[in-house]
């Protein structure tokens, strides 16, 4: 069975169809895209001001944007004397080694320390409640649930929302919220936000990057953010075991020039046994797709990663001509136009075939949809 919601950071969630999900656990029908207005911002500020305690939650297998945004918010609230916890719904709960430099990790607590009915829970970079993992039930029980996100595929869960599909990263929304709260940027907060925007813009290489993005980064750098250290940790540091896993994945890679309407598809897969054999944690291979996508002959890239139960997590990328979020949505997933994902339980060959068919079925619709979004702004990747 296919189905999984994902953003540019690949993280496991419940497989759609693998078990029955209650209706209230699913996102609401997708609303028309719009940017938060002053009323939206004020409603979130009111929720924060009125809360007795606040739980700040990133998605499972957090990336720099999710965890950086949550930690930045936690550090800012601590400045204001507000009790805040940061968490994410994985077990075991492991901060990726590439994010080990992030300040504020003393705020992170295990799932068991998050109240069963939080007074206020704020989620960061979470497009679908299933991406909360073990914290989904607690989110549904929260007295107040606020969603801060930048995914176009966000269905609009939560009671109050700051969802801006035109923002290059959730960190940008957190920065604006802190400005409205009157919290000044210090080096620690800025480091967390920089990790967020650098992660989701691919080190400022993706089409979401605009002059405003660079101006934002410049403000962060002015606080003394160690951008060179951050860049090395995010992009240029891997274990030797990862190199062995990568080599095997590249050996398995297949190029299909006729797929995606003749634009080309390159795909590969990573069996769980490879991770075990080389001692590589799942979160370390999230960037593997950025190596595979270098193939000049393919517009679309697909990497399938096997989990211990045999299910697959599909990560997809496009170079600008195909809306892979639309293709993934046809398989029960979603994400950004150029970076999306889905889940599958039907094996590698059948999953690749299903994805190929989804691309074929879209035809020119994916490109047309992308053109429509571009007509609104140049900031969405």
From TrEMBL:
It comes from the Bacteria. SUPFAM superfamilies: DHH phosphoesterases (SSF64182). GO terms for molecular function: nucleic acid binding. Residues 277-346 form the DHHA1 domain. Residues 56-197 form the DDH domain. It holds the Pfam family DHH. Transmembrane segments: none annotated. This is DHH family phosphoesterase. Residues 1-22 are annotated as: Disordered. Gene3D superfamilies: 3.10.310.30, inorganic pyrophosphatase (n-terminal core).
């Amino acid at each position: 069975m296919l189905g999984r919601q994902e953003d540019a950071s690949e993280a496991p969630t419940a497989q759609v169809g693998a078990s029955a999900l209650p209706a209230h656990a699913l996102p609401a029908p997708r609303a028309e895209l719009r940017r938060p207005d002053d009323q939206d911002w004020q409603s979130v500020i009111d929720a924060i001001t009125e809360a007795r305690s606040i739980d700040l939650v990133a998605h499972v297998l957090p990336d720099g944007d999710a965890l950086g945004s949550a930690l930045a918010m936690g550090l800012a609230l601590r400045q204001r004397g507000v009790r805040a916890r940061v968490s994410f719904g994985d077990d075991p709960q492991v901060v990726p080694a590439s994010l080990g430099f992030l300040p504020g990790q003393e705020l992170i607590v295990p799932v068991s320390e998050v109240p069963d009915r939080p007074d206020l829970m704020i989620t960061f970079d979470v497009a679908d409640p299933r991406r909360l993992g073990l914290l989904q039930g607690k989110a549904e029980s929260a007295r107040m649930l606020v969603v801060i996100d930048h995914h176009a595929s966000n269905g609009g869960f939560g009671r109050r929302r700051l969802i801006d599909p035109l923002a290059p990263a959730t960190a940008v929304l957190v920065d604006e919220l802190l400005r409205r709260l009157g919290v000044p940027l210090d080096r620690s907060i800025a480091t967390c936000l920089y990790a967020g925007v650098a992660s989701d813009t691919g080190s400022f290489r993706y089409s979401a990057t605009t002059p405003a993005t660079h101006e934002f980064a410049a403000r962060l750098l002015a606080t003394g953010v160690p951008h060179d250290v951050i860049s090395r940790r995010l992009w240029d540091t891997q274990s030797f075991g990862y190199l062995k896993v990568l080599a095997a994945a590249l050996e398995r890679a297949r190029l299909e020039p006729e797929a995606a309407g003749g634009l080309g598809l390159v795909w590969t897969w990573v069996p769980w046994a490879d991770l075990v054999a080389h001692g590589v944690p799942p979160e370390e291979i999230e960037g593997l797709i950025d190596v595979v996508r270098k193939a000049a002959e393919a517009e679309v890239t697909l990497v399938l990663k096997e989990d211990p139960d045999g299910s697959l997590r599909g990560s997809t990328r496009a170079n600008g001509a195909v809306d892979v979020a639309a293709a993934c949505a046809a398989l029960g997933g979603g994400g950004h136009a150029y970076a999306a994902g889905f889940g599958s339980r039907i094996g590698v060959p059948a999953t690749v075939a299903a994805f190929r068919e989804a691309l074929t079925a879209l035809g020119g619709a994916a490109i047309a949809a992308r053109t429509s979004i571009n007509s609104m702004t140049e900031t969405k990747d």
